C-alpha cells in the first residue's frame, strides 16, 4: 500500500482530486487530500507546509498499526511550492508535480511568472490555437475549456477561493532541490502552462522529461483514469 497525499493548486480544494481518489483506493492504496487556507491573509507558504505536514502526521498516527511509510506527494499547479518545501520537513518517497509551477530555490510564487517567461509562452500558445493572445484573462477559456459540462456545474458548487497575496510573496528559502525522486506530468492542451513551456522548465530546473496527458490544466478532473495510471506506475 502506498499513501498518496494530494495538494491542490491556488484557490482550489480537495474536491479537485475526487475523481482520482477512488481509482487509487480501488487499487488498494491510501489517499489523503489536503485543503489549504488560500484566503487567509495571515498564511503564506510556511503555514501551508505546516498544514500538509500536520495532515500527514495525523494520518500516520491514525494508522499506527501499519508499518511507517514515506508518502507519494502529488501537487497541482502552485501546490508545487509548498509540496517541495514539505520534502525538507518529512521523508517523501516521490514528488509528482502536475501542470506545475516548478519553483527554483530563492524564488517566490509571485516572481515565478516573470522569471520563467510564462506570459510569453501563454500568448504564443494562444496564437498557435487561433485565439487572441491579448484578450483579457478568461478563467473559463483558460481552465474549463475541456471539462465536461456536468463537471463544470458541479465545480460551481466548489467555487474557487481567491488566494490571498501572502503566499505569492513567500520565498522558498533553499539552496537546492531536495533529494527526492521527482516526476512532472503536463497537459498537452494546457492554456496556462503550455506543454513546450513545461517541458523547458522541467528540463532546465529538474533535468527530467515530463509525461504528457491529453488535457488542459485541470488534469485530475478531465483525465482521472490516465492520471491514476501514471501515479500507479513509478
UniProtKB/TrEMBL annotation:
<dbReference type="GO" id="GO:0016787">
    <property type="term" value="F:hydrolase activity"/>
</dbReference>
<keyword id="KW-0378">Hydrolase</keyword>
<dbReference type="InterPro" id="IPR029058">
    <property type="entry name" value="AB_hydrolase_fold"/>
</dbReference>
<dbReference type="Pfam" id="PF12697">
    <property type="entry name" value="Abhydrolase_6"/>
</dbReference>
<feature type="domain" description="AB hydrolase-1">
    <location>
        <begin position="4"/>
        <end position="229"/>
    </location>
</feature>
<protein>
    <submittedName>
        <fullName>Alpha/beta hydrolase</fullName>
    </submittedName>
</protein>
<dbReference type="InterPro" id="IPR052897">
    <property type="entry name" value="Sec-Metab_Biosynth_Hydrolase"/>
</dbReference>
<dbReference type="InterPro" id="IPR000073">
    <property type="entry name" value="AB_hydrolase_1"/>
</dbReference>
Amino acid at each position: 500500500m502506498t499513501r498518496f497525499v494530494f495538494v491542490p493548486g491556488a484557490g482550489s480544494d480537495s474536491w479537485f482530486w475526487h475523481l482520482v481518489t477512488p481509482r487509487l483506493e480501488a487499487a488498494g492504496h491510501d489517499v489523503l487530500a489536503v485543503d489549504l487556507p488560500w484566503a487567509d491573509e495571515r498564511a503564506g507558504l510556511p503555514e501551508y507546509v505546516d498544514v500538509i505536514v500536520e495532515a500527514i502526521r495525523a494520518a500516520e498516527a491514525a494508522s499506527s498499526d501499519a508499518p511507517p511509510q514515506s508518502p507519494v506527494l502529488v501537487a497541482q499547479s502552485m501546490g508545487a511550492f509548498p509540496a517541495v518545501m514539505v520534502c525538507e520537513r518529512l521523508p517523501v518517497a516521490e514528488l509528482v508535480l502536475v501542470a506545475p509551477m516548478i519553483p527554483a530555490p530563492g524564488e517566490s510564487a509571485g516572481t515565478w511568472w516573470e522569471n520563467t517567461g510564462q506570459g510569453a509562452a501563454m500568448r504564443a500558445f494562444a496564437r498557435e490555437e487561433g485565439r487572441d493572445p491579448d484578450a483579457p484573462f478568461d478563467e473559463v477559456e483558460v481552465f474549463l475549456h475541456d471539462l465536461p459540462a456536468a463537471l463544470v456545474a458541479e465545480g460551481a458548487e466548489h467555487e474557487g477561493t481567491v488566494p490571498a497575496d501572502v503566499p505569492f510573496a513567500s520565498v522558498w528559502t533553499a539552496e537546492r532541490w531536495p533529494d527526492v525522486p521527482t516526476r512532472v506530468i503536463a497537459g498537452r492542451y494546457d492554456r496556462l502552462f503550455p506543454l513546450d513551456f513545461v517541458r523547458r522548465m522541467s528540463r532546465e530546473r529538474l533535468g527530467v522529461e515530463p509525461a504528457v496527458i491529453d488535457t488542459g490544466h485541470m488534469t485530475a478532473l478531465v483525465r482521472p483514469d490516465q492520471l491514476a495510471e501514471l501515479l500507479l506506475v513509478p
